[in-house]
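Q: Convert this sequence to structure tokens.
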Amino acid sequence: MRASRSTRIAEVAAHAGVSPGTASDALSGKAGSRISAETRLRIERSARELNYHGNRLARSMRTGKSGIVGLMVSSGRSNPFMADLLYALEQELAKAGYEVIVDTDWPFRHSNRFMAFPVEGVLMWAMPNMTAEEFIGPSARNVPIIYLGYPRTDASTYIANDVLGGARAAMDHLLSKGYRRIAYAPTIADAAQLNYDDKYMAYCETCERLGVPVNIVRLEPEDADVDASRFGLRTAGFRAGVELGKLPLAERPDAIFCSSDVLASGIIQGLVRSGLRVPEDVGIVGYDNIEEAHCLSKTLTTVSYDVPELVRLGVAALVRRIQDDEIEHEHVTIPTFLVPGETT
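A:
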């Protein structure tokens, strides 16, 4: 028995009362404001009723463009902040007419397959010393790359949050609350990478100002050969909190600036398990303002910024560079601000 014939775009157009070109533009998401919202909805309803599915391979062969974007977001399935970021990027790219392939496996072991499709561009959440070329290979030079998260000094386009400003606000807040023996808990396993971490830089500035030594909270899994990012950041934080709780008062920090809310959540639970009180014995500040920060037994003091705006600007910048790779690089930094909670 022969399979039923696929619905053609012309049939969708006739059903919706528009031209095939208008139907194609509306369903590809690349029509901009040329098509009214009412017409777009009518076309989408016709496509659903007729069970229309576009043939991306045929479109790619016809236009020479794949309509695919690569996303490089480490821990994008396990870290709540990264998972929300990844979902937002996928939704924004879908509105722009793009599908995605994703690499969330640090250290981006699968990104070298991006060029096999090939992707039209890449969005990468990256520390300022990382480049897409490190993981994709030299072919990364042939597609637009937009870096997200941290400001950079190289010749690239980035959409960042003001990490240094946010971290300084966190440290100033701890000082205003009377904390002085402050430690920093990074999510970065490689100590050498800390030199590129603006949160760490802000922490070190404060230590120098106070004339106190730097105190780094180390995350150690039960198996020393297992990277912290693989066994769970929250669990790593919990174990670190338990170990901190064993220290005598003179050696224990009276506050911890955590580089992520997920890590802060784990450390809080570990400290409480050890019999310590937050914030009376140890104050905690996180970073990212994830949903969980407001669902703990005590709301988390954290640093926030407009993630939806970062996503929107990042996707828009990528689309512009896909359309014209000769445009100048864009450098955008979104403001950060402190969200006081009950953990300080």
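The two ends are 70 Å apart (CA to CA).
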